[in-house]
Amino acid sequence: MKLSEIAHCLNCSLPGAAPDLDILNISSLEHAGEKSITFLSNNKFIDDARNSKAAAIIVKKGIVIEGKINLEVDDPYLGYAKTAQLFEEKEPLFDGPIHPSAIIDPTAAIDVSVWIGPGTIVGKSCVIDKHTNIGANCVIENSTKIGSNCRIDSGVIIRRKSVIGNRVIIQSGTVIGSEGFGNAVENGTFVRIPCFGTVVVEDDVEIGANVTVDRGNFTPTIIRRGARIDNLVQIAHNVEVGEHSAMAAQVGISGSTRLGKGVLLAGQVGLAGHLTIGDGAFVGAKAGVSKNVEPGQKVTGYPARDLMKTRRVEAAQLNLPEMMKEVKRLRKELEQLKDNTL
Amino acid sequence: MKLSEIAHCLNCSLPGAAPDLDILNISSLEHAGEKSITFLSNNKFIDDARNSKAAAIIVKKGIVIEGKINLEVDDPYLGYAKTAQLFEEKEPLFDGPIHPSAIIDPTAAIDVSVWIGPGTIVGKSCVIDKHTNIGANCVIENSTKIGSNCRIDSGVIIRRKSVIGNRVIIQSGTVIGSEGFGNAVENGTFVRIPCFGTVVVEDDVEIGANVTVDRGNFTPTIIRRGARIDNLVQIAHNVEVGEHSAMAAQVGISGSTRLGKGVLLAGQVGLAGHLTIGDGAFVGAKAGVSKNVEPGQKVTGYPARDLMKTRRVEAAQLNLPEMMKEVKRLRKELEQLKDNTL
Amino acid sequence: MKLSEIAHCLNCSLPGAAPDLDILNISSLEHAGEKSITFLSNNKFIDDARNSKAAAIIVKKGIVIEGKINLEVDDPYLGYAKTAQLFEEKEPLFDGPIHPSAIIDPTAAIDVSVWIGPGTIVGKSCVIDKHTNIGANCVIENSTKIGSNCRIDSGVIIRRKSVIGNRVIIQSGTVIGSEGFGNAVENGTFVRIPCFGTVVVEDDVEIGANVTVDRGNFTPTIIRRGARIDNLVQIAHNVEVGEHSAMAAQVGISGSTRLGKGVLLAGQVGLAGHLTIGDGAFVGAKAGVSKNVEPGQKVTGYPARDLMKTRRVEAAQLNLPEMMKEVKRLRKELEQLKDNTL
């Protein structure tokens, strides 16, 4: 790829005298070769940048690494992301467009530009839009709609009537539209409550591997535009994940909880059901949230509370055994003093 | 469906003058339409019930919502569950009974009423009983037995020699019969211990998506009648889950632990190995249990202890930083007092 | 199997007068039959050993169970593991070597001794070495290399360019090579960072069911020789798991964290990103680790700290509500004393 193409994508210009090199790849400062472009997103690595073999470097405006072609941008990490997308392999893994071993119900409406891998099953009345690419051994059950330019990786299961937007990525082993966990009780035995809702995944959502997203009851479970879900996450029935919210691996969200926009959940967080997590809230790793979280609030711990307060409690806990001893000493000395003053 | 059919299922009667309406669906108070039936399971929503568009409503005996046809039952939530089952879609997702792309070993004994989806593999000497419905791209390994009226969703893997009862539901991506995690050590390297046992899933069990149930060693891992297991749960080798026990998503149970009847484990709970959890015990969300739990006991926290005691400790922790300061003040004032009284 | 074959495998000898019995299986003390061999790995079960029906028993050197043929070894638990491996069923589950329904790209180089189950897909330019056995409905994506004598169970997904060593076991539903969770941000929306690295799984590694291992970025994610990973574990991009390290179910390791050799992580542990966990370190169940752990250090809790210190803090916490009351009493009595001494 020509360096000028990268500069164009980053909306910056090549320095005047810079040759329009052929760039082979983007790499880290350490692993870049002589035909690589790299990036400096943290000034503490400026020496590594100088020592990198890269021919070109994406830097923050105002920074210059001598001996390299510098592409100046506002946010070098964002520049890295965009450049990496330029270098991404785009070709499907399997011969297409539709592998002869895929089983497509004749009532499914599939755009001619869609690729479908071997062993994948597409059920009745499914609709799949332009340039969507589906891997091997997936199951797309009846009446599912998938938008354009999606990437559905091998081994994904999308259960019936799910609605997937455009430019959505769903990684291997993930199950969309499993039935929610709801039971009534009769004489000590559980009676299952079937779920009639669906799952709606809006545009530009990305979902990791081996995730489970339960269908809603009456109304859909919704993952809103631009959200990010890491591996092994559980999204229960009727949860709503707000726009541009993100959650790390192994998070679990219980039924009917609603996340606002731009919420961040760190790894292994658990949210109880029927909560509201406000816009821009942050929940620390492994926290267990049992109450609503206000917009912009940062909480952690179990039960989750204000982040700074929790940090102070955690620090204080370390001194707890010593404090217990001190309280006993105080008691003893106070009793002696009482005796003495009587 | 006729309202009289629903009333019959709920073992109640239509009010005398009520017309035997055609009911299209069951829905929530809010989402019901004019041809819906709905339910009132919590009296705090009685105004919503009055404002609901539903034609009919399932209520607790003695409650009457004016303007609706009232079906009076002991437990409206249970009435909802049963009515919802009436409305559940029952038809298989794929043409059947056995999709031509399914690969069935000729030694498997499969009842003529069984439906098997495309791409599903059934191994040697498997037995599958009446009216069981298996989805797409499943793998049922050799010598597995599956009872009648089961629902095995797309993408389930059941490993060899597993025994599945009647009316069992297993959701997509779940693995039954994976090998347990057991190792001896020789000169600092692990030596694998093969597991010779199986998994036994009794009647009326329901298992969520992307769950793992390890086979036992010598004796089987057992999920007893009527148990409920949510998504992404780990059941290790030789665990026994008692009748009508239930566990929420992302619970992990270590090897050889036994749950009694009617045990409830909230989300993300972890149980150590070789424990006994008594009948009717409750374990709070995210708790880590390292000791036996008595029948009927409620525990939470890490390490898990009595629920009420843990709640008091959690409340006290919030005051810990302030208490540390108070103890220091006490020390200082006591020293002054000592000086003064000398 | 002849008892002498077992003795030979355990590098011990049959007692002089012992007949070279046919042994049907290895079993526990309790479940052994008259043609079983069993083992005594803990002397507290010596009475069970005497009462066992087993014909032969693996014991620690110096122990003799009368009435049984005793095979004396240094470590009976290790002897059990090795004997169990002798009795393990080795035959593939499906007719082979390559099931006619498997779809193998003509550019794949597959040794003639490899078995591949029905419905499995093998992509372009894959290489699979001698005696490796792949289950049903797996997907092995383009340019993946798999060594010799591996066992890849049904439903495994190995994404493109992964490198799997020799004698590796990967259980059902596991995804190797999913894309890591990395995003830049532009105007409040996430911009995906594609990952160019791969996953390298070295020799003798064993990975459980429904695990996710993300591919690295620039450099590979690495699982080193002999490591053990239980079910539902998350390994993020660029993690390095050291030789002979082991982790229990539902552990999550964040990006770029490095485990040394012989590290043990108990169930549901979470490790933050960019940490170093030293050789031989131990992390207790459910701990959340946010700082480096020294070689040989034992930590637990959240945030994880020294194991013994954490145990003392946990014990002290139980007394916290009572201590709060005592501090209040001390305050009150001190004030009275002050008044009295004025």
What this model shows, in words?
- Three copies of one chain form a homotrimer.
- With 342 residues, chain A is α/β, with parallel strands linked by helices.
- Chain A contains five helices and 36 strands.
- In chain A, strands 7-10-13-16-21-24-27-30-33-35-36 form an eleven-stranded mixed sheet. A ten-stranded parallel sheet of chain A has the order 5-8-11-14-17-22-25-28-31-34, with no helix packed on it.
- The longest helix of chain A has 22 residues, at 320-341.
- Chain A is flat and about 95 Å long.
- At the A-B interface, β18, β19, α4 and α5 of A face β1, α3, α4 and α5 of B.
Explain briefly what this protein structure is:
The structure is a homotrimer of 342-residue chains. Chain A is of the alpha/beta class and 342 residues long.
